[in-house]
Specification:
Length: 262
């Protein structure tokens, strides 16, 4: 992570070639598309059921995500009068469509549903409740990315089975890559900065030590033009991998994918 030159892409990478937040000095195209959408098999409420009722929507093998369709408050409880944890906008600070990973649902009445989602705020691993009316349709994702900071590897699993593994670089001890449960928020390409490789993914994980950076220091996953430095603790907190690895990962992993950093 380094301070970006123009846009607040410190949410993902940095301006210096040795860091890992994306520079946007070149033209780039941002996209938050997934693989062809799969409608979520969410339990349907009926008037005959007892309310409220809750159900899990994300685990180690299957996740659900949705785009934020209008600016909305995330609450501490599935109740409009409860404390507001943060506000969610329709766009990320990368300029891509904002989306959230949905952990569980709660049908308060047959016609009113709230979802508990992961939030892009500090402290990391924060969650909040938003009304279903502020989100688009639910989409399924059956991939899960695991980052092992001790072994310096990243492993992608599909339906619980490993389908991809690579060496990585992580943050230095004083700029650590934060451990926790996160998700992939967006995908960026075409920015033309060799130090960051051909493709980068933005996550909702944030640096706890570089909070004064534009956007708050979001952690990214991207390639590098210095593969010889991998594996190792080489970054300001983002996750580097060889260019051939990030290109392969981009073919296998869509936005909305849950991310575990250990």
């Amino acid at each position: 992570m380094n301070r970006p030159h123009v846009k607040p892409l410190a949410v993902l990478l940095a301006a210096a070639a040795s860091a890992l937040l994306l520079s946007v000095s070149g033209a780039w195209a941002a996209q938050s598309q997934s693989d062809p959408k799969q409608a979520a098999a969410v339990p349907r409420a009926s008037a005959k059921q007892t309310f409220p009722r809750s159900y899990k929507l994300t685990d180690d093998r299957l996740g659900h995500w949705a785009v934020v369709t209008k600016r909305v408050a995330a609450h501490a409880q599935p109740l409009a009068s409860s404390r507001v944890v943060t506000m969610l906008d329709v766009a990320t600070t990368d300029g891509t469509q904002n989306l959230v990973l949905i952990l569980e649902g709660k049908d308060v009445t047959p016609t009113k549903t709230w979802y508990r989602v992961r939030l892009p705020i500090l402290p990391n691993n924060s969650t909040g409740w938003v009304p279903a009316t502020s989100l688009g349709e639910l989409n399924k994702v059956n991939t899960h990315l695991y980052v092992d900071r001790a072994k310096l590897t990243a492993t992608l699993k599909r339906n619980g089975v490993a389908i991809f593994k690579t060496i990585i670089g992580v943050g230095r001890s004083y700029w650590p890559t934060p451990a926790g449960e996160y998700y992939v928020r967006d995908r960026l390409n075409g920015f033309g900065v060799p130090a960051y490789g051909p493709i980068a993914f933005g996550t909702n994980a944030r640096s706890a030590t570089l909070t004064d950076w534009p956007g708050g220091g979001f952690v990214g996953i991207h390639g590098t033009n210095e593969p010889q430095i991998l594996p190792g603790a080489v970054s300001h907190g983002c996750i580097r991998m060889p260019n051939e690895s990030i290109l392969k990962l981009a073919r296998l992993m869509s936005v909305g994918t849950p991310l575990t950093i250990r």
